[in-house]
Amino acid sequence: MKSGLVLSKSMLSENPIAMLFLGLCPALAVSVRVIDALWMSVGVILVLVLSGLAMALLSRHGEVDRGSAAAGLLRALVITSFLTASFEAGLLSLAPTASAALGIYAPLIAVNCLVLGRGMPGVTSPSLGSSVAAALGRGIGFAASLVLIALVREALGAGTITLFPVGGFGGTIEIPLLVEQPVRALGFAGGGLLCLGYLAAAARVISGRAAAKSAGKEAA
Amino acid sequence: MTYPTRLPRGGVDPPAEILVPRGSGIENAAIPSRALIPLLQHSGKPALCLVKLGDSVREGMLIGKADGSHSANVHASIPGVVVEVRDLPLPSGEVCIAVAIELGGEFETSGKPRTRREWTSLSRLELLDRIRRAGVVGLGGGSLPTHLKLTVPPGSSSSILVANGVDSEPSLCADDALLREKASDIVEGLRICQALLTPARTVIALGEHSEDLAAEYERLVSQEGLRVEVVVLPSRYPHGHEQLVLAALGGSPPGDERSATVLNVGTLYAVFEAVVLEKPLIERVLTVTGFPVSSPRNLKVRFGTGIRDLLEECGGLRSEAAKIVMGGPMRGVSVDSLDLPVTKGTSGIVAFGGREARRRTELPCINCGSCIEACPWGLVPTRLSKLVRMGNAVAAAREGLSRCTECGCCAYSCPSRIPLVAVLREGKRALRGPDA
Amino acid sequence: MPDVEDRAGPAAFSLMPAPHLSVGMSTSRMTWLVSLCLLPAAGWGVFLFGTPALIVLVVSVCAAVLAELAATLPFRRFTLPDGSAVLTGFIVGLLMPAGVPAFVPAAASAFAILVVKQTFGGLGRNWMNPAMGGVVFALLSWPGLMSQWITPRGGSAQAAVMPPLGALRAALGAPGVKDATPLAVLSRAGFTFSDIDSQVVGWINSHVLAPLGTALAPGTFDVLVGHVAGGIGTVSAPFLLLGAWFLLSRGVIRWHLPVCYAGTFSLLAAIFGGLGTGQGWFAGGPGFHLLSGSLVLGAFYAAPDPVTSPLTNRGKCIFGVGLGILTFLLRFFGSLGDGVAASIVLGNCASPLLDRWTSRRATEDVREGAA
Predict the structure, then answer these.
(1) Surface of B (5-34) touching C: CB under 8 A
(2) Residue C101's closest chain A neighbor by CA?
(3) How many Å lie between the alpha carbon of C126 and the closest alpha carbon of chain A?
(4) Interface test with C, best of B363, B398, B418, B428 (most C CBs within 10 A)
(5) Beta-carbon neighbour count of residue B157 at 10 Å?
(6) Cβ contacts (< 8 Å) between B425 and chain C: which residues?
(7) Is residue C366's pLDDT more than 50?
(8) Does residue A130 carry a pLDDT above 80?
(9) Are B128 and B255 in the same domain?
């Protein structure tokens, strides 16, 4: 399968959060502030891509038993945990506030990535390009959904948008009316699920239209 | 003995008044100058046409022969000449051959007294033969050939025989008028059926507005020495339905596997005419009613008479008439042509004015449960109709769709004006197969 | 007399499927009747709380109407005549405190129509009561604003601070307060009622009840008539009950749900209500609790919404009992307002299950129904 197709498929029609409903637990917890969502996305993309790369390289060039599923799982566990721990350590030293904000969900990136990595073309068709594309696609898809939800939840639910502090910019944008009386319901998990639901509906409509269009193109 | 018995459940009370003046009796409708007689006026196969263009026919002559056992004879209701034999689309949607007769010649039997034949010495087969030859079918709505209904396996009998004098639809009162005018003939017809079926129990069921007749009928049956109960049933639609009448009367005793027979009083009168007067079935009593009708009345009508003639006879339609229904207001079929003929199955003609005939906007189902309370059969119409609309008629069948008798109680009580009967009918059609 | 021949051809008569008769009460008529029956309570609320109350009501109805138009006009449907949008907005407004800023009822109404109702397909397709969903949304989002009460006209100064229910909670929180009825607790805690109340209660006590040896607690009149702080429509139990009686007589709502709901709640409140607050058994004050908060409005107007309540009468009874239990638990042991809106929303989740449990089996014989 072409890498480009794999990439776009993982981002849209197989979007982990909006279409496959994978990784919802950290998705709901971390999407309360945009900055947390951004850091989480960075971590997930890094770990997914690097572990995908590592797995693909190992199956191509390594002396490994391709047929054993348990061995494959063990491999995945070790690689993903190692990468996650590295990311955690890096985050702790580079951006300790972010690390504190992510809390328990930082180490949970490992679990998340294992879940997101299910069914990826890594071991099955060890084409390096498609492996990386799939991992990148899923990571970006996850990130996009997460940040979208976080934007809505924070803007409406807290009246702010928190980003990376750059230079003179403190990092928090305040929305004038909402910041005094935000729609707190969106800050709760229930409100998060509501946003997720609408995002999922929108994703289905868009991918449905895209599929219809491409089917129309093929027929024509 | 008269006692009001309760409808088991459900039913509705449509506020349809009887517009026919009380005590106005049955008038003979004018003989039509042209009668269009369909060869399918019964349930079963259409009769085979025996006449062709140009043939002259006598009154009461056989013009359609029953095609097999599940069919019935059709007779000419007026003397004259056959001027047309064509296909006629019936209000039910079926198409059959119809014979148009132009009035002419003399009336051999009308207006002249008929001799009463003896029948008590006849065997069952001979009695059934007289009934079959006269083309008697059920006049209460089912149009089943009556000789089939009165046939029981040799040596067996019926568990209960009911003379159903309960008008099956609101604002129709033909059965009531017939009960008043032809009491002894109806009882005689009942005697004939008793002889054929030898039921363990015989009941005459009267509707609430015929309650005053109970005493007279009790007197009649005791005079004749018949073992017949007279019962008054509450007027709650669809109380006139066979199964509900039976349920209200207590039905067959548990364990009694014999059949229960319910016959409309109009059918009993036709049985009387067929057996005692040897007269074929060429006319029936029906009610012409509705607010736009100038003078509603009960008429004895020859089959083949057009609706147009009947309405004119009732003083004509006022201009606001917007819907014409053949049958009753709950189950009748609305028609757009006044040239359709009256047949054996026509129990009434109802006209509706502008406001009543207004098309009602359908709103979504709000789950109010009124249809469930109204259904006399214990069905859940809202669920059945939703399943049918989703294309899942099979699931609806599992939940009892085939028990629906299209009585209309559910659609009547639906505040969202959902055409439940039409939807359920669609579902039943879907079940019969795409080729049905 | 016009000749029958004058009738034009087939186009003159309409063809419609049987039956050709229909019951008089239609869905839209039912919905508008409910709105009508809420008018007396709304009027009383506006009389008590003045212009702010009127603004809240108008804003919430308008927001609901606009939301409905926004959701249906793009699809070329016009659903306002069925009356449900107006009713939803009306109920949302009636549950708001009069002092709430206008954007809160607007947001609640919009949420109710757009998210709770139209997202799932519009009238008949929603599984949650839209008005209750909107109110819960408002309670969760702006808890502080949803407690901005206004002194009712002629009410005591203290009545501006909080409604009797809230005051009772606060009073019971203090240690050492043990007494029989909620009103007694309140007067012990120093909660004052209006002058009219003291006059009326005083008159009744001295002229009618003194010979009998009993006395009404101060505040009885205020709570009964609704002369206290609270939601715009929820304070006026007598007017609500008047409207409810009219609806019951017309068959628009059936008695099963409201009676089971209010009955179960009163029973539980009477027996167990005092336990959590240290008053002991059978000391819950059911009358006080029935009239406080939005129970009457919820039981007679909101919960019997046919779309979200069970189909069968048996199901409605079970639903009512369940709601009574939920409201009791949420009110006495929970912290989210008076528990009515939240319990209705929770109970709606169980409606389809109750439908399934209480629907007739398809194989039931017609004769089994004969009693």
Answers:
(1) 6, 8-10, 12, 14, 16
(2) A181
(3) 15
(4) B363
(5) 15
(6) 17
(7) no
(8) no
(9) yes
Out of C103, C140, C145, closest to residue A185 by CB: C140
Provide the pLDDT confidence category of residue C86 given band limits of 50, 70 and 90. Answer: very high
Is there a single domain that holds both residue B147 and residue B269? yes
Confidence of residue B4 (pLDDT cuts 50, 70, 90): very low
Please tell me which chains touch A, using 3 or more CB pairs under 8 Å as the contact test: C
Which residue of chain C comes nearest to A194, CA vs CA? C115
In whole numbers, what is the pLDDT of chain B averaged over residues?
Answer: 87
How close is the nearest chain C Cα to the Cα of A17, in Å? 20
Q: Is residue B152 included in any domain, yes or no?
A: yes
Q: Which residue matches tokens 């929820």?
A: C234
**Cβ-defined contact of C107 to A194 (cutoff 8 Å):** no
Tell me the per-residue pLDDT of B370-385, one tens digit each, with 9 for 90 and over.
998 898 888 899 999 9
What single string gives the DSSP state of each residue in C283-313?
Answer: -S-HHHHHHSTTHHHIIIIITT-TTTS-SSH
Structural contact between residues B98 and B75, judged by C-beta atoms closer than 8 angstroms:
no
Mutate to test the interface with C, among B414, B416, B428 (most CBs of C within 10 A): B416
Contact C140 A181 (CB under 8 A): no
Closest residue to A185, CB basis, from C101, C141, C145: C141
pTM of the model: 0.85
Q: Is residue B325 part of a domain?
A: no
Residue with token string 């959590």 = C276
The crossing angle, in degrees rounded to 10, of helices C84-94 and C103-110 is: 140
* Mean pLDDT estimate for chain C: 83
Residue A125, classed as helix, strand or coil, is coil
Answer whether B336 sits within 8 Å of C20, measured CB to CB: no
Determine the pLDDT at residue A173.
81
Query: What is B264-302 written as a DSSP string?
Result: EHHHHHHHHHHHHS-----EEEEEEE-TTBSS-EEEEEE
Tens digits of residue pLDDT in C280-318: 666 667 778 888 888 999 999 999 999 999 988 899 999
Residue of C nearest to B169 (CA): C19
pLDDT digit string, tens, across residues B40-79? 999 888 999 999 999 999 988 999 999 888 899 999 999 9
The model's pLDDT over B152-193, given as tens digits with 9 standing for 90+, comes to 777 777 788 889 988 888 888 899 999 999 999 999 999 999
Q: Domain end: B233, B257, B276, which one?
A: B276
Indicate yes or no: CB of A188 within 8 angstroms of CB of C142.
no
Which residue would you say has higher pLDDT here, B334 or A64? B334
Query: Is B421 an interface residue toward C (CB < 8 Å)?
Result: yes
In this prediction, residues B208-219 reach a mean pLDDT of 87
Give pLDDT, residue C371: 31
Residues of B in contact with C4 (CB under 8 A): 308, 311-312, 316-317, 338
* Parent domain of B424: 370-432
Give helix A34-61 / helix A108-116 axis angle, nearest 10°.
60
Q: How many CB pairs under 8 A join A and C?
A: 20
Residue B285 in domain:
no
Q: Cis omega before residue B238 (within 30°)?
A: yes
Average pLDDT over residues B81-97: 90
Where are the domains positioned within chain C?
Answer: 27-147, 157-357
Indicate the residue among B276, B309, B341 that finishes a domain.
B276
Surface-to-core class of residue A74, CB atoms within 10 Å of its CB (0-12 exposed, 13-18 middle, 19+ buried): exposed
Does B131 share its domain with B266? yes
Residue of A nearest to C134 (CA): A185
Q: How far apart are CA A164 and CA C141, in angstroms?
A: 27
Rg of chain B (C-alpha set): 22
B12 is a domain residue: no
Model ipTM? 0.83
Minimal C-alpha gap between C369 and chain B (Å): 5
At B319, phi and psi to the nearest 5?
-65, -20
Contact A181 C145 (CB under 8 A): yes
Residue of chain C with shortest Cα separation from A195: C115
